[in-house]
Specification:
single chain; mainly alpha; two-stranded antiparallel sheet; 28 helices; 9 strands; transmembrane helix; transmembrane; Sulfate permease, SulP family; STAS_dom; membrane
Length: 626
């Protein structure tokens, strides 16, 4: 903190520039999430300020990002659906999940998990990021053409019978909960059903219509209706926004093109009094904490979403730490990963309390900050303060921004967030697995599985499936590699290692050597067992060389035990050479050493093992001659 104001001028310009870049994205991500533009702005304010203050990357600018917003959409849509389509009812549960994600991030940082985030496979990240782009791109088609399913009366009317059933079902559930439901007498049920108005059914039907048209598949289902009901003004506003964003970049990158598009298109639409659809009103005044997340807390309402909260926490961690690496490369500094996770967690937790959506380190905003002169934590805090000033001073003005403009901005975000590097690499990646006569790349399969499942099913589960598949394929490759490199042959038929060149010739047909060249774990145990079974029972001795076996898990340990018992029962002596620390520790813990393998049968070098065999041969000859 002693150098907090050491670069005041540069940090001021960097923070202001990054805040200006963040403004249109914060509004757009807020609208996309389903909580409205104010939620995006609140998230940007608090995450930017507190993640910078407590984080471990001096130049990082944080706020709502495309991946975090996409997962947040899943949470919000699910909880709104189970709360009769009411955001007000669902809001406490939504925010407590965001708060839980922030607290989890703090926990990850305190436990030192930051350094392990880099082990998530690239194909999983690539498929996920491309899916985020697809989701944002597809779901912004409807607002770009000015079509809102819940306002299409003909479409909504299809859901009225279902709406009536749901309302009656809710009445029965209420009565059951109150203990007044009598199956032989539905008098109370009939009385309550008469209080249902047409407005109640319309509201429920509109909620069902909106839910039916949500997500990628929902958008594609209603796309034909949207194309028949295009609002040409909204479409022109969205296309103009997209054109300015891409066109202005060719003129200059000194001024954020998204901000230029926001100001120009919104100014023209408002100035000419066009009949466009504005975004939701942004509340004026300083943000106030939503204490209902504590007073109205119900564990049952968030239990199904705990895994989603963890996903948000991990995703935010990955997003932030990747941006930290970019910042390190640009500034020639070194970030503190665990401290960064704590800072991100504090930022997300405070943002949730004030009604903001979660976020993470944002690469573009961080790069802009550095290029504008930002060098210390002050730059990120300035960005947050600037957004707060804009909220307080220009909130009513920002409420006049056309919804189609933000949809256009999100379309460009969706296009930009896709992992084109990973997509371009698909034809060139090695085809390392076979499905019948077809050869495929395991990396491509993982990426496509995550991409498809994320786009059409569930972002959270898709990442889990991708990680499981990637882990299984990795273990299969490691097992195959260990089996391929490890072999069991007599020295007459195998090219031995350098120190085996002078092995006594008279022992070569009786002594077999097993080279273990890699970890012995559950992915390679079956191959190890098969190789061990190749040892003929005419052998007198088996030497197991463990010089290159750095690791052995419990499955490998028990497989090794089975092999040793089988060999010893066949009166075959087993000698171990150069047992490394971790495998030896495992073997000693379950008494393989010394119960099955006495310590005098374990040698540090192969030469010591040869000396033992020569001495044993001499003793056997002496006994035979006697």
């Amino acid at each position: 903190m002693k150098n907090f104001f050491s670069n005041f001028r540069g940090d001021l310009f960097g923070g202001i520039t990054a805040g200006i870049v963040a403004l249109p994205l914060a509004l757009a991500f807020g609208v996309s999430s389903g909580l409205g533009p104010s939620a995006g702005l609140y998230g940007a304010i608090f995450i930017s300020f507190f993640a910078a203050l407590f984080g471990g990357t001096n130049t990082q600018i944080s706020g709502p990002t495309a991946p975090m917003t996409a997962v947040s959409m899943v949470v919000i849509a699910g909880l709104v659906a189970v709360n009769d389509g009411s955001i007000e009812k669902a809001l406490p549960a939504i925010l407590i999940i965001f708060l839980l994600a922030g607290l989890m991030q703090i926990g990850l940082g305190l436990l030192g998990i930051g350094k392990y985030i880099r082990y998530i496979p690239y194909p999983v990240v690539s498929g996920f990021m491309t899916a985020i782009g697809v989701i944002i791109l597809v779901t912004q088609i409807l607002p770009s053409v000015g079509y809102y399913p819940k306002e299409d009366n003909e479409f909504v009317s299809q859901f009225k019978p279902m709406a009536e059933e749901i309302i009656l079902e809710n009445i029965l559930k209420e009565e059951a909960g109150e203990g007044i439901l009598v199956l032989e007498n539905f008098e109370e049920t009939i009385k309550r059903s008469k209080t249902i108005t047409q407005d109640d059914m319309d509201k429920e039907a509109r909620t069902l219509a909106k839910s039916e048209a949500s997500g990628v598949l929902g958008t594609l289902k209603v796309l034909p209706r949207a194309m028949q009901n295009i609002n040409w003004l909204e479409l022109i506003l969205a296309l103009s926004t997209i054109a300015i964003i891409y066109g202005f970049k060719k003129i200059t990158t000194a001024i954020p093109s998204a901000l230029v598009a926001l100001i120009v298109v919104s100014g023209v639409a408002y100035g000419f009094g066009l009949n466009y659809r504005p975004i939701e009103e942004i509340p004026s005044g300083f943000p106030v904490p939503n204490l209902e997340i504590f007073t109205g807390f119900k564990l049952s309402s968030i239990t199904p979403y705990v895994f989603t909260a963890l996903t948000l926490a991990l995703l935010g961690a990955i997003d932030s730490l990747l941006t930290s690496v970019v910042a390190d490369n640009m500034t020639k500094t070194k970030h503190q990963p665990n401290k960064e996770l704590v800072g991100q967690g504090i930022g997300n937790s405070i943002a949730a309390i004030f009604g903001g959506i979660p976020g993470a380190g944002a690469t573009i905003r961080t790069v802009v900050n550095i290029n504008a002169g930002g060098k210390t934590k002050l730059s990120g805090m300035v960005a947050g303060i600037l957004l707060l000033i804009i909220l307080l001073a220009l909130g009513p003005v920002a409420s006049q921004i056309p919804a189609a403009v933000l949809a256009g901005i999100l379309v460009t975000v969706g296009i930009g967030v896709m992992d084109y590097k990973g997509l371009k690499a698909i034809p060139s990646l090695p085809k390392d697995i076979s499905v019948g006569p077809i050869k495929l790349s395991s990396e491509v399969i993982i990426m496509l599985v995550v991409l498809v499942l994320s786009s059409v099913w569930n972002l959270v589960y898709a990442v889990g499936v991708g990680l499981v598949i990637a882990s299984l394929m990795f273990m299969k490759k490691m097992g195959d590699l260990t089996a391929e490199r490890s072999d069991v042959k007599t020295l007459e038929h195998e090219k031995g290692w350098a120190d085996e060149a002078h092995f006594p010739k008279h022992l070569k047909e009786k002594v077999f050597i097993k080279h273990i060249k890699g970890p012995l774990f559950f992915g390679s145990t079956s191959e190890f067992q098969a190789l061990a079974n190749q040892i003929p029972r005419t052998a007198s001795t088996v030497i197991i060389r463990m010089d290159r076996m750095q690791y052995m898990d419990q499955s490998g340990l028990y497989t090794l035990e089975d092999v040793l018992i089988d060999l010893l029962n066949s009166n075959i002596e087993v000698l171990l050479v150069d047992v490394l620390d971790q495998p030896r520790y495992m073997m000693e813990r379950v008494d393989l050493i010394p119960d099955l393998i006495p310590k005098d049968r374990i040698f540090n070098t192969f030469d010591e093992c040869i000396s033992y065999l020569n001495k044993k041969t001499v003793e056997q000859k002496a006994e035979a001659s006697a």
